[in-house]
Design a protein that fits this description.
By secondary structure, this protein is mainly alpha-helical. The protein has one domain. Helix content is about 90%, strand content about 0%. The chain has three helices and no strands. The longest helix has about 60 residues. The chain starts with a helix and ends with a helix.
């Protein structure tokens, strides 16, 4: 999954670089062909760089927002996992506490269960013979 994501982001970055180069060259050529020269007080290359910087800034904001949304989802999942871990920790602590308090009764319960098992076996044997 991470490899596919890497290729996706690499492809997006390369696509953005190629498109921005093509668009930048196109805008620069259009301004040069339309008669706007640098000697008239308008520097077309600086304008193209400013427009491309604006486009990159917008793309950066989009990626930052996507990362923020991904982080929010991960934080929510982590909070759910923390709550589950706390509940399981409480259950195991209660089991340990119960086991320590009733360890002296294990032999009694064991003998009762053994007698009950023997009784059930004898009843089953007597019924099905």
């Amino acid at each position: 999954m991470k490899k596919n994501t890497f290729y996706l982001y690499t492809g997006l970055v390369l696509l953005i670089l190629v498109l921005s180069s093509i668009i930048g060259f196109g805008i620069y050529s259009y301004w040069k062909d339309s008669g706007i020269d640098d000697d008239k007080g308008y520097n077309s290359i600086n304008a193209v760089i400013a427009l491309l910087s604006l486009a990159f800034s917008i793309i950066t904001v989009i990626f930052v927002y996507a990362t923020y949304q991904s982080s929010l989802t991960q934080i929510k999942d982590n909070n759910k996992n923390v709550e589950l871990d706390r509940a399981l920790d409480n259950i195991y602590r209660q089991l340990e506490f119960t086991g320590q308090n009733h360890s002296d009764k294990i032999e009694v319960y064991s003998s009762i269960l053994t007698k009950l098992d023997d009784t059930v076996e004898s009843l089953f044997y007597n019924l099905h013979g």
